[in-house]
Amino acid sequence: MELHIPEEPVVIKEYIRFAKKEFDKIFRKSRSAERLAVWRLEGLPKYLWGEWKSKLKKMGITWRDFLKILRHHILDMIRWAIYDSLSWEELIRQIEESIKHFIELGEIY
Question: Is residue 50 within 8 Å of 43, Cβ to Cβ?
Fold first, then answer.
């Protein structure tokens, strides 16, 4: 199973950075601000689901399963969106590995 690498969603990345700045005002620059920014409006999960939905459904993965998988990549999403310390391709391949694991074991980690 190989998922295509969708175009990097620059607008979503910028929105996550904006949301982090806003949450920093509330949470005083904590990890909570970063986590909330990544999940704000589920922008990235919705984008990826839109790109892979038909293939994931064929593999038996539901929206709920997909969110469960992505929750294990919150720090990776933070590294990609906020710190630029993880490339888009690396993020996608790490998510893909978790999807493979989920399919093989019927669960994630």
Answer: no
DSSP code of 82?
A: T
CA–CA separation, 96 vs 88, rounded Å?
A: 12
At CA 92, angle to CA 90 and CA 98, rounded to 5?
A: 105
The owner of tokens 């399919």 is 103
Q: How confident is the model at residue 5 (pLDDT cuts 50, 70, 90)?
A: very high
Two tokens at 22?
């806003």
**What is the total residue count of the chain?**
109
Gap between the Cα atoms of 15 and 10, Å rounded: 9
75-86 pLDDT per residue, tens: 999 999 999 999
Query: Any idea what DSSP says for residue 73?
Result: T
CB-CB contact of 33 with 27 (8 Å) = yes
Give per-residue pLDDT as tens, 45-88: 999 999 999 999 999 999 999 999 999 999 999 999 999 999 99
